[in-house]
C-alpha cells in the first residue's frame, strides 16, 4: 500500500471515529463503538495496522508514527466519551431519587409477650404502692427453703423436684449441693426482709426452675410474680382487696377472686387463689398471711408486724388474657406466634 493511501484512510478513520465516539448516547452504544474501532481482533484500527506491513520500508517510520498518533487520538476521544456518559448516568440516578416517596419500612422486633406482661404487672402494682425487688436465679437452701419454714424433710426439697447444682466442693456422689436454681420467687421475700426493716411493700418478677416434663401446662422454666406486704395490722381482707384490684386491672372489671384453703409452709393461713374469668375458675397461684416463723428467720418481731404474701404464675396470667392454650408456645420463638403481641 502506498503511504498516501494509508494516510488518507487513517485520517478518514480518525475523523469518523471521533465523530461516532462523541455522538454515543449511552454507555452501551459507546461500548459497541469501542469494539468496532478498537476491538483487539477485528477492530477497524487493528485492520489498518495490518496495512502498515505492506508499506515501503523507507516510508514505514512516518506511517508508524502517524498511526500511533491517530490511535492515541481515538483512545483519548473514547476516554472522554466514557467519562461524559458515566457522569450522566450518575447525575440521572441522583435526579431520579425522590426524597418525598415513602421509604422501605425496616422490620422491627418487639418485646416478648412475657416481658410485656411483666412490665404491665409491675405497672399495675406500682399504682398500688408496691416497688420492685430483684433476686438471683441461683440460690442457696436458706433463701429457697429454710428461712421460708420449709423443713429439710419437706418433699418440696426433694432432689428430683429441684435443679440442685454441683459445686466444686460437693461433687458427684457427695451429699447434695447447697446451691440450686430457685424453684420459687418467694426467695426474694427473705432477701428483702433480711435487708430492710418493716414496713415492706414489694413485688418481684422473674424466672423459676423445676424439673417438670414440658407439656401444655408445664415447662421446666417459667415466671412468677411474688408479692409481699408487711406492716402493722395487715389482714386477709387487705390481701383479697389487693388481689382483686390487681385482677380487675389486668383482666377486666368483671373478674372475681376466690380463696380456697390450702397449705404453704411460709404462710398461715394459706390459700389457693382462683380467678373467675369468662366461664370458669382458674387457679392463679398461692397466697396467705406470712408465717411467724418466717418473720423470726429474718429478725422481724411477729408480735409487732403482720403481713401477706402471694405468688402467681406470669405465663398463666398472660395465657388467660390472650386465650393461649399451650405454655410451650411462649418459648418456641416462632415469629408467627410472637408477632401477634
Ligand atoms: N411459692 C409458691 C409456689 O411456687 C407460691 C406461693 C404461695 C407464694 C403462697 C407465696 C405464698 O408468696 O404466700 O408454689
Can you give me a brief rundown of this structure?
This protein is of the alpha+beta class. Helices cover 43% and strands 21% of the residues.
Report on this model:
With 341 residues, the protein is of the alpha+beta class. It has two domains: 3-95, no CATH class; 113-338, BirA Bifunctional Protein, domain 2. The protein is 43% helix and 21% strand. The protein is built from twelve helices and ten strands. It has helices at 3-23, 27-38, 44-51, 60-96, 113-127, 141-144, 187-195, 236-251, 292-297, 314-322, 329-332, 335-338, and strands at 131-132, 138-140, 163-164, 179-181, 200-209, 221-231, 256-264, 267-277, 280-290, 306-313. The strands form two sheets. Strands 1-5-6-10-9-8-7 form a seven-stranded mixed beta sheet, sandwiched between helices. The protein has a three-stranded antiparallel beta sheet with strand order 2-4-3. β7 and β8 form a beta hairpin. α1 runs parallel beside α4 (60-96) and α2 packs antiparallel against α4. The longest helix is centred in the N-terminal third of the chain and has 37 residues, at 60-96. The chain starts with a helix and ends with a helix. 3,4-dihydroxyphenylalanine is lined by residues 184, 186, 226, 264, 267, 285-288, 309-311.
Amino acid at each position: 500500500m502506498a503511504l498516501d493511501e494509508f494516510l488518507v484512510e487513517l485520517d478518514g478513520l480518525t475523523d469518523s471515529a471521533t465523530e461516532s465516539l462523541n455522538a454515543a448516547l449511552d454507555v452501551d452504544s459507546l461500548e459497541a463503538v469501542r469494539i468496532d474501532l478498537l476491538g483487539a481482533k477485528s477492530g477497524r484500527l487493528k485492520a489498518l495496522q495490518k496495512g502498515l506491513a505492506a508499506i515501503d520500508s523507507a516510508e514505514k517510520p512516518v506511517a508508524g508514527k502517524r498511526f500511533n498518533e491517530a490511535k492515541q487520538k481515538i483512545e483519548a476521544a473514547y476516554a472522554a466519551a466514557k467519562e461524559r456518559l458515566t457522569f450522566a448516568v450518575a447525575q440521572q440516578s441522583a435526579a431520579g431519587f425522590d426524597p418525598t416517596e415513602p421509604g422501605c419500612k425496616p422490620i422491627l422486633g418487639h418485646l416478648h409477650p412475657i416481658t410485656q406482661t411483666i412490665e404491665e404487672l409491675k405497672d399495675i402494682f406500682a399504682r398500688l404502692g408496691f416497688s420492685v425487688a430483684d433476686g438471683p436465679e441461683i440460690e442457696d437452701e436458706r433463701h429457697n427453703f429454710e428461712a421460708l419454714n420449709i423443713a429439710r424433710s419437706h418433699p418440696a426439697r426433694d432432689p428430683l423436684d429441684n435443679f440442685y447444682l454441683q459445686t466444686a466442693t460437693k461433687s458427684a456422689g457427695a451429699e447434695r449441693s447447697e446451691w440450686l436454681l430457685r424453684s420459687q420467687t418467694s426467695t426474694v421475700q427473705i432477701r428483702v426482709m433480711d435487708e430492710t426493716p418493716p414496713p415492706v411493700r414489694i413485688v418481684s418478677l422473674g424466672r423459676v426452675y423445676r424439673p417438670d416434663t414440658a407439656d401444655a401446662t408445664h415447662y421446666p422454666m417459667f415466671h412468677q410474680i411474688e408479692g409481699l406486704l408487711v406492716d402493722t395490722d395487715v389482714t386477709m381482707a387487705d390481701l383479697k382487696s389487693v388481689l382483686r384490684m390487681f385482677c380487675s386491672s389486668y383482666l377486666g372489671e368483671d373478674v372475681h377472686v376466690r380463696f380456697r384453703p390450702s397449705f404453704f409452709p411460709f404462710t398461715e393461713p394459706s390459700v389457693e387463689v382462683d380467678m373467675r374469668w369468662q366461664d370458669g375458675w382458674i387457679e392463679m397461684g398461692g397466697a396467705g398471711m406470712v408465717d411467724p416463723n418466717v418473720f423470726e428467720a429474718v429478725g422481724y418481731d411477729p408480735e409487732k408486724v403482720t403481713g401477706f404474701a402471694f405468688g402467681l404464675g406470669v405465663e398463666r396470667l398472660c395465657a388467660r388474657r390472650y386465650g393461649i392454650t399451650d405454655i410451650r408456645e411462649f418459648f418456641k420463638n416462632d415469629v408467627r406466634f410472637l408477632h401477634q403481641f
